[in-house]
Amino acid sequence: MTETPPLALEPRYYTDPDIYRREQEAIFFRTWHYACHVSEVAATGSYVAFEVAGESLFTIRDGQGELRSFYNVCKHRAHEMVSGQGRKRLLVCPYHAWTYDLDGRLRKAPNAEKVPGFDASKICLTSVRTEVFCGFVFVNLDPHAKPMSDWFPEAEAQLKEFRPGIEDLKPVKQVEVIEDCNWKVSVENYSECYHCKLNHPTFSQGVIDPESYNVLPQGHCLRHTTRAAPSEAMTYAVAGPSGPDQGANEAAQAYSSWFLWPAYSFQVYPGGVLNTYLWRPLSVDRTLVVRGWYTEDGLLSDTIEQLSEQDRVTTVAEDVRLVNSVQRGLNSRGYEAGPLIVDPATGVNSEHSIEAIHDWVREALEPAG
Ligand code: FES
Ligand SMILES: [Fe+2]
C-alpha cells in the first residue's frame, strides 16, 4: 500500500462561520483559558472581568481567600455584575441592587421579604472552574472538564524548573495586535518553525538557534525547545547585572515554550525572560493576539522594553503578514487542503505539531461514534 502524507484541514475550517460557531461550543467552552494574573486578584474582593468566546466572566478573591470565577450576570434579570477590574466589599448589581457575597451567594434583594416563597439561600451566581497555573489564573466553562494537569501533563513542573520563581513574576506590559485571519491560522503559525529561517531573521539569528528547534506534543500542550543563539549574536543582554539570577540554570542558554491548547502560550527567552501569547478569536477571520511581558517587581526593565519592542516590530509584524496572506489564500478557488511535511524524526522542518492541532480540531468537531 502506498503511503500518502497527511493533509491539512480543508479551507472551510478557516472560513465557514458555521464551523467557527461550532468551535466555540466544542472547543472554547470545554478547554482552559487565561483569565487574569494572581497578582491582579491578590486582595480580598479584588476582581477582573474578561471574556471567553463571547461569554463575559469574572474572577474574584472571596472573603476566605479563595479564588472564584463566575459568569458575569445577575440572577435577577441578567444585568452584568462587574466591568473592568477593581475591588468590592460585596457584589451589588447595578440594576436593582441585588447584593451577593464575594463567594457568589445572594445576601439580599430589595423588597424580596414581601415575596411569598422567595428563598435567597437558593440563589448563587453561576460559578466556573478555576485553577492557578504558575501564578496565572485559568478557567474552564465545562464543569466536567479534566484538570489542567491532565490536559497538559508535566507542563507546570517544567515551567517552574525552567523559569525558577515564575509564580512570583508580575505582568508589566501588554502588546495587542489584530490579525485578519482565523484563530487557527495564527495558532498554527505559532506552532511550527518550518517558516522561521525564511521569515524571522532577527529571532532565528539573534535569539535562538533554529537548527536545534523542535516542537513535541505533550498531552494537549505543544512543547517548543531550542538552544539560544550564540552569545555574540544575541540581540539583548541575557541575565545582565540587574536581570534574574539564572547563573545556575541551564535555561539561561535555551529557549522553551509551552503552548496550551487552544489559545495560550508561555515562552521563556534565553536568560529566563517570560512572555506569553493569548489568542482571542473575534470572528471567523479576525483574531486578537495579546503578547504579555513579566518582571520580578512588575516594573518595566530596559531588557523587557527593548525586547518587547524588537518582538513587536520583527517577529509579530512578520507573522501578521504571513497569517493575513494565508487567510486570503484559504479563500482562493485555487486552493484545497495541501500535504503536511511530517518528518518522522521531527525537528525544525517538520509539521508534526500542525498534524496534532488538526487532530484536536477534528476530534472536537467530529467526535467518534
Ligand atoms: S438584574 Fe441584577 S438586580 Fe435586577
Ligand atoms: Fe512566525
Q: Can you put this structure into words, describing what you see?
A:
The chain has 369 residues and is α+β, with helices and mostly antiparallel strands. The chain has 2 domains: 32-140, Rieske Iron-sulfur Protein (3-layer Sandwich), CATH 2.102.10; 152-365, Naphthalene 1,2-dioxygenase Alpha Subunit, Chain A, domain 1 (Alpha-Beta Complex). Helix content is 24%, strand content 28%. The protein has helices at 12-15, 17-26, 148-151, 155-162, 183-190, 196-199, 201-206, 302-330, 352-365; strands spanning 33-37, 46-52, 55-61, 67-71, 85-87, 91-92, 99-100, 106-108, 127-133, 136-140, 170-179, 214-218, 221-227, 254-260, 264-269, 273-283, 286-295. The chain has a 7-stranded antiparallel β-sheet, with no helix packed on it. The chain has a 7-stranded antiparallel β-sheet with strand order 11-17-16-15-14-13-12, with helices on both faces. A 3-stranded antiparallel β-sheet has the order 6-7-8, with no helix packed on it. Helix 5 (183-190) packs across helix 8 (302-330). The protein is globular. The model is unreliable at 240-248 (pLDDT under 50).
